[in-house]
Amino acid sequence: MQQRREMSGQGAAPAQAGGPQRDAQGSPQGGAGSRGRGRDFRSRRKVCAFCVDHVREIDYKDVARLRRYLSDRGKIEPRRKTGTCARHQRRLSVALKNARHMALMPYTAAHIRGV
Questions:
Q1: Distance CA 8, CA 76 (A)
Q2: 92 three-class SS
C-alpha cells in the first residue's frame, strides 16, 4: 500500500489528516463557543486559604489542615495547584517539614499506604 502525501508548496510539511480543524483564532471549529452563543467559562483565580482565614502562623501540629497540601505520593503541592500565596507557601513548606520531622506527617507514599 502506498501512502499519499499532500504537499502545499515546495518544501512544505505534509498535511495532517487527523485532529480537529481550527479557525483563525486557534479554537476548534464547530463547537458551541465558535457561534458566539453560550457562556464563557473561565476558571476563577484561586485564593489563599490562609489569607482568607487571617492565619498569622501555620501550626505544624494542625495535621488535618496540612494534609490538604500533600499529594497522594507525599509531595508538597505547588502554589499553582493549591492557590496559596508566596508568603504562606514558604511558611507552609516549613510547617510540613517540621511535621514530618516530628513524625506527624509522612515523608513518602509508602508511609501513606502503610506498606
A1: 49
A2: helix
How confident is the prediction along the chain (115 residues), in pLDDT tens digits per residue?
Answer: 555 655 555 555 555 556 566 556 665 555 555 566 777 777 788 899 999 999 999 999 999 999 999 999 999 999 999 999 999 999 999 999 999 999 999 998 887 766 5
**What is the domain count for the chain?**
1
* Cα 109-46-73 angle, rounded to 5 deg: 5
The four Cα atoms 100, 104, 108, 110 give a dihedral, to 10 degrees, of 160
95 lies in some domain: yes
Give the span between the Cα atoms of 14 and 7, in whole angstroms.
6
Cell numbers for 66, please give them.
496540612
**Full-model pTM:** 0.60
- Range(s) of the domain holding residue 77: 49-113
Residue 56 lies in a domain: yes
Rounded distance, CA 61 to CA 57, Å?
11
Backbone angles phi, psi at 41, to 5 degrees: -95, 100
